[in-house]
From TrEMBL:
Highest rank taxon of the organism: Bacteria
GO biological process: cell division; chromosome segregation; DNA transposition
Gene3D superfamilies reported in the protein's UniProt record: 1.10.150.130, Intergrase catalytic core (1.10.443.10)
Record has Transferase as a keyword: no
Taxonomic path: Bacteria, Bacillati, Actinomycetota, Thermoleophilia, Solirubrobacterales
Similarity annotation: Belongs to the 'phage' integrase family. XerC subfamily.
GO cellular component term of the entry, any: cytoplasm
Chief localisation class: cytoplasm
Active site: 163, 187, 258, 261, 284, 293
Official protein name in the record: Tyrosine recombinase XerC
Subunit structure: Forms a cyclic heterotetrameric complex composed of two molecules of XerC and two molecules of XerD.
Length: 312
Protein backbone atom coordinates (compact mmCIF):
# COMPACT_ATOMS: atom_id res chain seq x y z
CA UNK A 1 0.00 0.00 0.00
CA UNK A 2 1.23 3.51 -0.74
CA UNK A 3 2.31 5.84 2.00
CA UNK A 4 -0.66 7.73 3.41
CA UNK A 5 -0.81 11.33 2.33
CA UNK A 6 -2.08 13.69 4.97
CA UNK A 7 -5.72 14.66 4.42
CA UNK A 8 -6.22 18.29 3.55
CA UNK A 9 -9.04 20.70 4.26
CA UNK A 10 -8.48 22.19 0.81
CA UNK A 11 -10.47 20.75 -2.08
CA UNK A 12 -8.07 18.34 -3.82
CA UNK A 13 -7.64 18.40 -7.58
CA UNK A 14 -7.86 14.63 -8.01
CA UNK A 15 -11.08 12.85 -8.95
CA UNK A 16 -12.51 10.02 -6.82
CA UNK A 17 -12.51 6.61 -8.46
CA UNK A 18 -15.56 5.44 -10.38
CA UNK A 19 -16.64 3.24 -7.45
CA UNK A 20 -16.43 6.19 -5.10
CA UNK A 21 -18.35 8.47 -7.47
CA UNK A 22 -21.12 5.89 -7.61
CA UNK A 23 -21.18 5.59 -3.80
CA UNK A 24 -21.25 9.36 -3.32
CA UNK A 25 -24.09 9.77 -5.80
CA UNK A 26 -26.09 7.05 -4.04
CA UNK A 27 -25.47 8.72 -0.67
CA UNK A 28 -26.57 12.15 -1.89
CA UNK A 29 -29.72 10.69 -3.44
CA UNK A 30 -30.49 8.93 -0.17
CA UNK A 31 -30.03 12.14 1.82
CA UNK A 32 -32.40 13.92 -0.56
CA UNK A 33 -34.95 11.13 -0.19
CA UNK A 34 -34.77 11.47 3.59
CA UNK A 35 -35.47 15.20 3.35
CA UNK A 36 -32.02 16.44 4.39
CA UNK A 37 -31.48 20.17 3.93
CA UNK A 38 -29.37 21.32 0.98
CA UNK A 39 -26.73 22.66 3.35
CA UNK A 40 -26.52 19.30 5.14
CA UNK A 41 -26.14 17.49 1.83
CA UNK A 42 -23.33 19.83 0.78
CA UNK A 43 -21.50 19.42 4.10
CA UNK A 44 -21.80 15.62 4.10
CA UNK A 45 -20.85 15.54 0.43
CA UNK A 46 -17.71 17.57 1.04
CA UNK A 47 -16.55 15.46 3.98
CA UNK A 48 -17.22 12.17 2.19
CA UNK A 49 -15.64 13.36 -1.05
CA UNK A 50 -12.53 14.35 0.88
CA UNK A 51 -12.31 10.83 2.29
CA UNK A 52 -13.03 9.32 -1.14
CA UNK A 53 -10.12 11.27 -2.64
CA UNK A 54 -7.85 10.17 0.17
CA UNK A 55 -8.87 6.55 -0.39
CA UNK A 56 -8.41 6.89 -4.15
CA UNK A 57 -4.76 7.82 -3.59
CA UNK A 58 -4.50 4.61 -1.51
CA UNK A 59 -6.07 2.47 -4.22
CA UNK A 60 -9.05 1.73 -1.97
CA UNK A 61 -12.64 1.51 -3.17
CA UNK A 62 -15.56 1.81 -0.69
CA UNK A 63 -15.86 -1.94 -0.13
CA UNK A 64 -12.14 -2.20 0.71
CA UNK A 65 -12.25 0.31 3.58
CA UNK A 66 -11.81 -1.27 6.99
CA UNK A 67 -12.16 0.05 10.51
CA UNK A 68 -8.37 0.28 10.65
CA UNK A 69 -8.31 2.46 7.52
CA UNK A 70 -10.89 4.81 9.03
CA UNK A 71 -8.90 5.05 12.25
CA UNK A 72 -5.78 5.83 10.27
CA UNK A 73 -7.64 8.56 8.41
CA UNK A 74 -8.88 10.08 11.67
CA UNK A 75 -5.37 9.96 13.11
CA UNK A 76 -3.97 11.68 10.01
CA UNK A 77 -6.55 14.44 10.42
CA UNK A 78 -5.48 14.83 14.03
CA UNK A 79 -1.85 15.13 13.01
CA UNK A 80 -2.84 18.17 10.96
CA UNK A 81 -4.32 19.71 14.12
CA UNK A 82 -7.86 19.42 12.78
CA UNK A 83 -9.99 20.14 15.85
CA UNK A 84 -11.83 17.27 17.53
CA UNK A 85 -15.25 18.67 16.64
CA UNK A 86 -14.36 18.69 12.93
CA UNK A 87 -12.96 15.14 13.05
CA UNK A 88 -16.14 14.01 14.82
CA UNK A 89 -18.26 15.68 12.13
CA UNK A 90 -16.33 13.97 9.34
CA UNK A 91 -16.65 10.57 11.01
CA UNK A 92 -20.39 11.14 11.46
CA UNK A 93 -20.67 11.83 7.73
CA UNK A 94 -18.76 8.62 6.95
CA UNK A 95 -20.98 6.61 9.29
CA UNK A 96 -24.00 7.92 7.39
CA UNK A 97 -22.36 7.09 4.07
CA UNK A 98 -21.57 3.51 5.08
CA UNK A 99 -25.00 3.06 6.63
CA UNK A 100 -26.48 3.92 3.24
CA UNK A 101 -24.15 1.50 1.43
CA UNK A 102 -25.10 -1.26 3.86
CA UNK A 103 -28.85 -0.57 3.56
CA UNK A 104 -28.60 -0.74 -0.23
CA UNK A 105 -26.83 -4.09 -0.08
CA UNK A 106 -23.37 -2.93 -1.16
CA UNK A 107 -21.82 -4.06 2.15
CA UNK A 108 -22.64 -6.66 4.78
CA UNK A 109 -21.53 -4.40 7.65
CA UNK A 110 -20.32 -0.85 8.16
CA UNK A 111 -16.62 -0.42 9.06
CA UNK A 112 -17.44 3.01 10.50
CA UNK A 113 -19.59 1.71 13.36
CA UNK A 114 -16.56 0.71 15.42
CA UNK A 115 -14.66 3.97 14.98
CA UNK A 116 -15.15 6.14 18.08
CA UNK A 117 -15.47 9.89 17.73
CA UNK A 118 -12.69 11.86 19.41
CA UNK A 119 -13.52 13.30 22.79
CA UNK A 120 -14.51 16.92 22.57
CA UNK A 121 -14.14 19.42 25.40
CA UNK A 122 -17.43 20.01 27.15
CA UNK A 123 -18.54 23.50 26.25
CA UNK A 124 -21.69 24.82 27.82
CA UNK A 125 -23.99 26.89 25.59
CA UNK A 126 -24.12 30.65 25.98
CA UNK A 127 -27.28 31.43 27.95
CA UNK A 128 -28.67 34.89 28.64
CA UNK A 129 -30.30 35.67 31.97
CA UNK A 130 -34.00 36.45 31.88
CA UNK A 131 -33.38 40.13 32.61
CA UNK A 132 -30.80 40.26 29.79
CA UNK A 133 -33.34 38.87 27.34
CA UNK A 134 -35.85 41.44 28.56
CA UNK A 135 -33.29 44.23 28.16
CA UNK A 136 -32.53 43.06 24.62
CA UNK A 137 -36.16 42.83 23.51
CA UNK A 138 -37.35 45.97 25.28
CA UNK A 139 -34.51 47.89 23.63
CA UNK A 140 -36.09 47.37 20.21
CA UNK A 141 -38.54 50.24 19.57
CA UNK A 142 -41.78 50.05 17.62
CA UNK A 143 -41.05 53.04 15.41
CA UNK A 144 -40.02 51.95 11.90
CA UNK A 145 -41.29 48.86 10.00
CA UNK A 146 -37.85 47.25 10.33
CA UNK A 147 -37.83 47.85 14.09
CA UNK A 148 -41.31 46.34 14.41
CA UNK A 149 -40.15 43.37 12.34
CA UNK A 150 -37.06 42.85 14.49
CA UNK A 151 -39.06 42.99 17.70
CA UNK A 152 -41.49 40.37 16.38
CA UNK A 153 -38.63 38.27 15.00
CA UNK A 154 -36.65 38.05 18.23
CA UNK A 155 -39.70 37.82 20.48
CA UNK A 156 -40.68 34.75 18.47
CA UNK A 157 -37.15 33.33 18.47
CA UNK A 158 -37.02 33.46 22.27
CA UNK A 159 -40.66 32.50 22.87
CA UNK A 160 -40.35 29.33 20.78
CA UNK A 161 -36.61 28.50 20.82
CA UNK A 162 -36.36 28.54 17.04
CA UNK A 163 -33.20 28.08 15.01
CA UNK A 164 -32.25 30.93 12.65
CA UNK A 165 -32.96 28.71 9.65
CA UNK A 166 -36.38 27.86 11.04
CA UNK A 167 -37.17 31.55 11.47
CA UNK A 168 -36.33 32.47 7.88
CA UNK A 169 -38.30 29.49 6.55
CA UNK A 170 -41.53 30.56 8.25
CA UNK A 171 -44.34 31.63 5.96
CA UNK A 172 -47.12 34.03 6.83
CA UNK A 173 -49.44 31.02 7.01
CA UNK A 174 -47.23 29.31 9.61
CA UNK A 175 -48.81 31.40 12.37
CA UNK A 176 -52.12 30.53 13.99
CA UNK A 177 -53.06 33.61 16.01
CA UNK A 178 -56.29 32.08 17.36
CA UNK A 179 -54.48 29.03 18.76
CA UNK A 180 -51.38 31.10 19.65
CA UNK A 181 -49.01 28.64 18.02
CA UNK A 182 -46.62 28.36 15.09
CA UNK A 183 -45.96 25.50 12.68
CA UNK A 184 -42.21 24.99 12.32
CA UNK A 185 -40.36 23.04 9.63
CA UNK A 186 -37.32 21.70 11.47
CA UNK A 187 -34.28 19.66 10.52
CA UNK A 188 -34.90 16.73 8.21
CA UNK A 189 -38.23 18.17 7.12
CA UNK A 190 -39.82 17.36 10.49
CA UNK A 191 -42.79 19.55 11.38
CA UNK A 192 -43.64 20.55 14.95
CA UNK A 193 -46.23 22.84 16.50
CA UNK A 194 -44.87 25.23 19.14
CA UNK A 195 -46.98 27.45 21.43
CA UNK A 196 -46.31 31.21 21.25
CA UNK A 197 -46.37 33.39 24.37
CA UNK A 198 -48.53 36.50 24.64
CA UNK A 199 -45.70 39.08 24.31
CA UNK A 200 -44.62 37.43 21.06
CA UNK A 201 -48.22 37.23 19.83
CA UNK A 202 -48.64 40.97 20.44
CA UNK A 203 -45.38 41.77 18.64
CA UNK A 204 -46.29 39.52 15.71
CA UNK A 205 -49.78 41.00 15.44
CA UNK A 206 -48.29 44.50 15.27
CA UNK A 207 -45.80 43.36 12.63
CA UNK A 208 -48.32 41.51 10.44
CA UNK A 209 -50.90 44.29 10.59
CA UNK A 210 -48.66 47.34 10.33
CA UNK A 211 -45.09 46.60 9.22
CA UNK A 212 -45.24 43.63 6.86
CA UNK A 213 -47.66 45.32 4.42
CA UNK A 214 -45.23 48.25 4.25
CA UNK A 215 -42.27 45.97 3.49
CA UNK A 216 -44.16 43.81 1.00
CA UNK A 217 -43.29 44.48 -2.64
CA UNK A 218 -44.62 41.27 -4.17
CA UNK A 219 -47.92 39.73 -3.09
CA UNK A 220 -46.61 36.34 -4.21
CA UNK A 221 -43.92 36.42 -1.49
CA UNK A 222 -45.06 34.03 1.26
CA UNK A 223 -42.25 34.64 3.76
CA UNK A 224 -43.35 35.81 7.18
CA UNK A 225 -40.30 37.97 7.81
CA UNK A 226 -39.36 40.31 4.97
CA UNK A 227 -36.25 42.33 4.27
CA UNK A 228 -36.37 46.04 3.45
CA UNK A 229 -36.47 45.02 -0.22
CA UNK A 230 -39.49 42.78 0.39
CA UNK A 231 -37.67 39.47 0.12
CA UNK A 232 -37.33 36.57 2.55
CA UNK A 233 -34.70 37.23 5.21
CA UNK A 234 -31.51 35.16 5.30
CA UNK A 235 -29.87 33.69 8.39
CA UNK A 236 -27.02 36.18 8.00
CA UNK A 237 -29.59 39.00 8.12
CA UNK A 238 -30.85 37.64 11.43
CA UNK A 239 -27.36 37.35 12.90
CA UNK A 240 -26.48 40.87 11.79
CA UNK A 241 -29.63 42.47 13.20
CA UNK A 242 -29.28 40.61 16.50
CA UNK A 243 -25.69 41.83 16.85
CA UNK A 244 -26.92 45.40 16.41
CA UNK A 245 -29.57 45.12 19.13
CA UNK A 246 -27.21 43.19 21.38
CA UNK A 247 -24.71 46.06 21.27
CA UNK A 248 -27.43 48.60 21.97
CA UNK A 249 -28.55 46.57 24.96
CA UNK A 250 -24.90 46.45 26.11
CA UNK A 251 -24.91 42.67 26.45
CA UNK A 252 -21.51 41.28 27.34
CA UNK A 253 -19.88 38.93 24.84
CA UNK A 254 -22.40 39.64 22.11
CA UNK A 255 -25.44 37.56 21.29
CA UNK A 256 -26.32 35.19 18.45
CA UNK A 257 -29.60 33.52 17.43
CA UNK A 258 -28.71 30.20 19.05
CA UNK A 259 -28.16 32.00 22.37
CA UNK A 260 -31.87 32.84 22.36
CA UNK A 261 -32.65 29.17 21.68
CA UNK A 262 -30.35 28.07 24.51
CA UNK A 263 -31.92 30.66 26.82
CA UNK A 264 -35.42 29.46 25.91
CA UNK A 265 -34.55 25.88 26.90
CA UNK A 266 -32.64 26.79 30.05
CA UNK A 267 -35.35 29.15 31.33
CA UNK A 268 -37.97 26.45 30.75
CA UNK A 269 -35.86 24.00 32.74
CA UNK A 270 -35.42 26.58 35.51
CA UNK A 271 -39.19 26.97 35.59
CA UNK A 272 -39.74 23.26 36.13
CA UNK A 273 -40.53 22.09 32.58
CA UNK A 274 -39.99 18.39 31.91
CA UNK A 275 -36.93 17.57 29.79
CA UNK A 276 -39.04 15.53 27.36
CA UNK A 277 -41.31 18.53 26.79
CA UNK A 278 -38.29 20.73 26.10
CA UNK A 279 -37.01 18.11 23.67
CA UNK A 280 -40.26 18.22 21.72
CA UNK A 281 -40.39 22.02 21.69
CA UNK A 282 -36.81 22.24 20.41
CA UNK A 283 -37.34 19.54 17.81
CA UNK A 284 -34.43 17.40 19.06
CA UNK A 285 -34.54 13.85 17.71
CA UNK A 286 -32.66 12.54 20.77
CA UNK A 287 -33.07 13.37 24.45
CA UNK A 288 -29.28 13.23 24.83
CA UNK A 289 -29.02 16.47 22.83
CA UNK A 290 -31.46 18.19 25.18
CA UNK A 291 -29.63 16.98 28.28
CA UNK A 292 -26.90 19.57 27.80
CA UNK A 293 -29.27 22.04 29.47
CA UNK A 294 -29.20 20.01 32.66
CA UNK A 295 -25.44 20.63 32.72
CA UNK A 296 -26.10 24.35 32.36
CA UNK A 297 -28.43 24.19 35.35
CA UNK A 298 -25.89 22.13 37.32
CA UNK A 299 -23.12 24.63 36.55
CA UNK A 300 -25.37 27.50 37.64
CA UNK A 301 -26.20 25.80 40.94
CA UNK A 302 -22.53 25.02 41.64
CA UNK A 303 -21.60 28.64 40.98
CA UNK A 304 -24.31 29.87 43.34
CA UNK A 305 -23.15 27.37 45.98
CA UNK A 306 -19.54 28.49 45.67
CA UNK A 307 -20.53 32.13 46.10
CA UNK A 308 -22.92 31.65 49.01
CA UNK A 309 -21.87 28.71 51.17
CA UNK A 310 -19.39 29.53 53.95
CA UNK A 311 -17.70 26.14 53.63
CA UNK A 312 -17.71 25.93 49.85
Amino acid sequence: MKNSPTPTEDRPRLEPSAAWREALALFDADLARRGAAARTRRAYGFDCTQFALWCTTQGLDPAQVSTRVLRRYAAALGERDVVAATVARKLAALRSLYRTLREHGHLAASPADLVPAPKRPQKLPHVLKADEVAALLDRIPATTPLDVRDRALFELAYACGLRAEELVNLDAGSLDFDAEEVRVEGKGGKTRIVPVGEPAVRALTRYVERARPTLETDRAETALFLSKSGRRLSTSDIRRRLRVWGRRAALQGGVHPHALRHSFATHLLDGGADLRVIQELLGHSSISTTQIYTRVESARLKSAYARAHPRA
